[in-house]
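step=predict obj=KASH domain-containing protein n=1176
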Amino acid sequence: MAEKLKGQLNNLVQFSRDVSPQSEKVTALIKQHNSLSLRASRECQNKERLLEQRFRAALRDFQQWLVNAKISTAKCFDVPQNVAEASNALQRIQEFLSDREHGQARLSTVRASGELLILVVSKDRVEGIKAKVTNAREDWKSLMNNLQMREDALKNLQSQMTEFEASAEPLQEWLNTTEVRVQESSVRLHDLPAKKQELNKLQCVLEEVASREAELGRLREKAHHLWEGQAAGKGFVHRVSQLSAQYLALSNLTKDKASRIERIVGEHQLFSQGLKELQDWLCEAQRVLNTCVSSTIDKSTLEDRMLQLEALLAARQEREIQLKMLLTRGEAVQRNTSAEGVPVIRKQIQDLKDSWDSLLSSCIRCKSQLEGALSRWTSYQEDVSQFVLWMDRVEETLSCSDRQFSEMRDKTANLGKTKLLYEEVLNHSSPLETIATKGSNMTEPCTTQQEVQQLQCRYNTLKDQAKNALSKAKGLVLVHQEYQRALHVFEEWLEQEQATLASISHPDGNVETLEKTLEQLQLLQDRCSNGQSLLSSVLTSREKVIPWGVPQIEDRALDTAQREWGAYQGHLEETHSHLSSTLGRLKQMGQRFLILAQWLEEMEKAANVRQNRRSDKLTKDTQLKKLQGCLEVVLSRQVEVDGLSSLTQEALEETCISSHISVTATQLIAQYHSLLLNIQGSIKQLQEELKSIEDADNICSTFTEWISSTQKGFAEVTDGSEPQDRVAIERMMKKLEALQSELQNGHGILKSLREQAEQATSFLTEAEAENLGCEVETRLAQLEELAGRLRQKHSFLQRMLLLAKEFQDRYKVQAQWLLETRALLSTPVEAKAELYQRRALLAKYKALSLMVQSHDGSIKSVIEKGDTLLASIHYSSVRDKTNRLKKHYSDLCNVAMSHVETLEDQVKEQEAYHKELQEMERWLLQMSSRMVTPDPTVCGSLESATQQLASHKAIMEEIAGFEDRLAGLKERGAHLVQGCGDRVQSKLRQQVQAHQQGIRDSYSAICSTAQRVYQSLDNELQRHVSLQDTLQQCQTWLSSIPEAGEPAAHPSLSLESALCQVKHERALQEQASTYLQLVCSTCDLSEARVRETAAAIQHVRLQIEERMLLCEELANNWRDIEEQKAELEVQLRETEQQLENLIRGPAELEPRIAQNLLDRAQVCVLIIMSYVMLSP
């Protein structure tokens, strides 16, 4: 309409220029229209701005409320750990829901202000405003739905928690009370019934504990149900775990207590039973002891009581162990008994100990009394019985002394025993007195006195008998000693005579000695009468001893002496007659020895014909004939000499001639035989010398013939041509060996010649011996010359034959080896698919190559043997064989080396491939271990996230560089496959493809993992950057707020400054709301620094709102002041105008009007005064 009016006005101006009055009206209308249009547009802009401010304020208020609501209810969505937390969360949600009208009112305000704003804004801004309203409504609905759902969940959880607590509390109380009961069970153990009662209680508690296990299981299921649904925290599971632990502890404690109290009860029962048993035994023992203490004089009764007391003491000793065990058990029972029951047990034990000690002292006292009485009775009776036994033994001994004792040792022993017995009888007077004294002290002295008198009488009789037996034994010993002395004197005399006879019974054998010996024998025959008188005295003393028994020892000695006496007399007669005959024979033999000695001297002079062995052959024949004549004469007396030897032997055997005669006879016989042997030896020596000379001559002629024939044969063998082959050499060798065997015969002949010549030279004259030696040396030189030539020729041929044979054998061996090895190496080398097969094949061919190289020495040895053989004998075939052997061996070495080099290249190639493959697999394995998805909790800061991303970028670059290694591995695999034969290529190609495919799959997996990790790290970094930027912006804004947001030091002095302050505070409020919305929408409120920043922004925002309210109030005040100022100015102008009018015409004023004017002026003054007072 304004445009229409403007157009009409323009038309009017255009078409009505000539009408000036209308033109002025139109101009006025146009000005008025423009003024109205300007005012209307300003009003519209102001209204739009106002509506937009209201919409923003309402939206900001709603968002702030929404943020506060989320912050205030954020803890309500945490997992509650107990019923109180769940109740608090539920109460907070319910309070918030009950106060939801505030939010609903703010949302309605936003919707209403948005609708109003939509009506006045342009179309392009409508959608944005609607979107903001819609977002606000959706945020409201989402918040309400979440709170409603959380409320329902918390109600359900609260009921479950309440139910759980309702079930857990009784169980907890029961566990606590039961534990207290079990703990207090050790206090009430004062006696055995109390212990049994506590044991029964604990067994009941155990049954109750077992019955509560099912309830604990149900609680555990409920707690796990609450926790597994994540509706509640793990506190309930911990609570159940605590209850279970407490339950198990209570169960174990109860079981331990029950087992302990059961053991204590058993121990107390055993203690009570043992105590009662020992008390009963002590009563019985006291009764027995009282019986033993009663007085009596009967010995058998004393002995019975003593046996009873000993049995009682033995039983007490056995019961001592039981007492110690009981005391030990009592200590254990005291330790396991409460304080009020310990004195009772101690009193029982002390009473038992006192009774036990009292019994022991009573037993000792009673035993000492019984032992005293019994010892007196026993001592008296033992003394009497021992004395009686002694007298019986002495009487028996005295009765045995009346028997005969034939031997001296028996009589001497009897005398000693009798003396000892008599001394013993005399010494037993004191025991008899002791018996009398003990008998007088007995309770019945009359009986003991009669017994002592009987013993005294018997003792006196026994003493007289012992004295008579002693005197009789002394007489027997003296008579027997006289008989022994006489016999000993006769034996000594006879021994002296026998020794004298023995000393003269073997004279030396000469005539003078034999004559002196015969005189001494005559003297011994004259002394035989003395011996006969000594023998008679011995027989007389024997007659005195015989009535008391024949002494066997002395009689045997007497018989021996009588036999020796008779033998001595016969020997004396025989020795005298024998020596007489021997003296006559000795004189006859001496005459014959003298004649024979003279003849031997004559024959020794006749047989001594050779003064020196060296003589000629004729002299030796003469000496031989003369010695043969002497030998015949000597042999004629041989029978006589042999008879002399037998005669001398007979004389030596039959008589006691000394060895002098035998020595003389032996000397004569030896002299005869020596003469005979000398003659025979000389004859034999001469015969041998003559024979040796003849043999030497014969052997010399034989050797001369042999040497000439042998030299002729050697000349025939060596004069031929040189051998050209092995057969010719062997044939010549055989001939030479035959000559060498003949040479051995020559050596034998020469040896015999030398031996005979050496023998002959020892008994020939010097001239003949020298001629014979020269002839032998000549023959020896001829033989040695021939032997040297034979030996030289034979050794040469033998060496050649050995060289030829050795060369041929070695050549055959090496040729055969070359043939076999060449056949082995001629097969082509086929590449294998597996590395170990290639290595094995390489090792095989290396071994073959080493074997071939090791035969180098053998080949060279064969060639050297051939060269040596060629240097001595010309062999055409040997040179061909050596050349052929060299060529074949060189070819074989080249083939082996080529095979080894080929296989080494193949093995190195495959090893390099496998090494590269293993390194790539190792790299992939290491890289897979490094490819770990980042943990957001680890990347807690921007720096760590940046470092992880940088390190991961380096890893990705390293992964990208792995492509070149894959390509290199593929090329190596292809080259490896191409180097194999067709039969192996397919298998090796499959292996290589499998290896490469596995590597590529692993590499692809690592690449995908690396990309995924990179994206995750990049997202995490972007999140940290965004969070850091947001928080940094917020912190920057917060740090600038204290400077820009502080209130002015002086209040605003005008409306414009107050409005500027309001505008500034409103801008700050918009910024705070924007930053708060940014933090709440883009950041995670679970982080502490985000929550701190949000809380700081909220705090600053609230401070800004407070200051903005103050500024708005101040602006409103200034606005009121301005309005009041304008009104005051109007009133002042009106008052001033009225005052001027009044001054001009005061007479015209009526009193009423004047009063009104005065009142108005006063009111105006009051208003001004009030403003002046209100003004700062």
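step=describe
The chain has six domains: 26-174, 186-380, 401-504+534-571, 694-760+775-802, 828-933+940-1032, 1054-1140.
step=end
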